[in-house]
Write the C-alpha cells for this entry.
Amino acid sequence: MSIDFKMKDFFYPFSILKFRNFLEKSQWFSLEEFIAYQENRLQEIINHAYEHVPYYRDLFDKLKLKPSEIRVLDDLKKLPLLTKKDLRNNFNELQAKDMKEFNPKLIYTSGTSGDRLGFFVDKPSNILEFSYYWRHWSWAGYHLGDRFAEFSSSFFMKQKDEISNSLFYFSKFSNRLLLNSLSISKDNVEPYVNILKKYKPSFLKGLPSVLFYFSKFLKEKAILDLKFKAIFSQGEILLDSHKKFIENVFNCKVYNSYGHMERTVAICECPYGGMHINPEYGVFETVDNVSSSEGYTGKVIGTSLHNFSMPLIRYEVGDYIEVEKGARCPCGREMSLVSKIHGRKEDVIVTKDGKVITTLFIVFNNVPGIEIGQIIQEDFDNLTIRIAVTNEYDKASEDILLNYVRKFVGRDMSINIDQTSREKIKNGFGDKFRVVVSKIDTNTLLLK
C-alpha cells in the first residue's frame, strides 16, 4: 500500500539508519532469534499499553490478567481479538495518554473496504515503515537515492493547480517520478513512455491493477522497450497470471508485497520468489485455520511491535492467507513463507475513451460525513454511488464527492448518488464486500 506522507514524517535519518542496519543483520536470524526479538518487543508494548492506554488497562483488569502474564507469543491467546469495529467504537480509549511523546499522526485506511478507518501512527512506526521498505527494495538491487517511478492517483487528486491535470510530477529531493494513473488508456500510453524514457527511473512501483493495464496497453501497442531493474507491486492482490504478464512485458522481476495501513503485518517477496512474513514488523497469527497437506489457511491477526501511540494487539486484519508449514526458501532466510493471499480485489471503471480507473475507492477518503460507500458502473454512460451518511454530510459534502469522481471519470458520465443504509449497502456481500462493482464486460472496450 502506498505511503501517503510528507518526507518530514520520515525525517529521522540517524534512527532510520540504525534500524535499517539492524534489519540488514536480522534478516538472517534463526527462528529462535526471531522469536526472542518478538517476545522482547511484545513485553515492551504490552507493558506500555497497560500503563498508558485506557482500553487495555480496562481489558486486562476485566480479565484479571497482569501484563507480566504475557511473556511468550502463545500468551497472546489470553487476549480477545481487536476488530475494526472495536477500533472505531473505542477510538479515544485506544490512544496512549503519553502519545505526544511519540510524534503521533492521524491517518486513514485507503478505503478498499468501503469503511474509512482512522488511527494514529508515530515516529517509531514510521522508522519501521521506511526501513522495512528500504530492506525489501534492496533485495531487488535498490540503493537509497536511486531514481524510481511510481503510479499514483491520490497525489494528483489533492493538487489544486495545473499539476492535478499533469501526467507526471518529478521530485528532485526524493528522486521520485510520480505518474498520474488517472489518465492511463490504450490511446494515451505513448506520453507515459516518453516521460519514462526521459527520466530513466531504475525501478517502477504501483498497484497491481495499474501495472497490469499499463503493461497490457504497451503490449497492444507493441511498445516493449521499456526496461527496469525491478517492479514493485503493493496495495492490492497480485494475480499470478498478471504477475507473469507484467514480467513478460518489461522483462524484469515483479516483487510482490502485502501489508496494511495499520502496520501490524508485512509480507514481501525475495529474489527467489518466496513470500516472507517479516517477524521484526509485527506478530503474525491466524485464526479459524483450515489445515492441508502443505500447511494451513487462516484469517490474519496482527500485533503492533513499534506503534506506541495506538498499539493494536491481536488486530483482525480481515484477509485470509495460506501459510506453508515448515517450508524453507532457497534464499536462506528463516522467515515463514506464505503461499497465497486471499484479499479483496476490486473491479475497475472504464470510461468511453478507454481510461482505466483502478483506484476510484479513494474518493470516499476526503468527503466529510460518509460512513460507507460503494460505486457501481451500470454501463459506459452511468455510474451509481451508494452511500450511508452521518449528520456531518451536507450539500457541500456532495459537491466534494462529485468533484472528486469527476476528476476520475470526466464530465460525460452520468452520476447518480443514492443515499441508503449501511445494511443495504453491505447486504449480500458479507466478508467479500466490494467497493467498486462493474456490471459491464470491460474487455469489450479495452481490446478495441
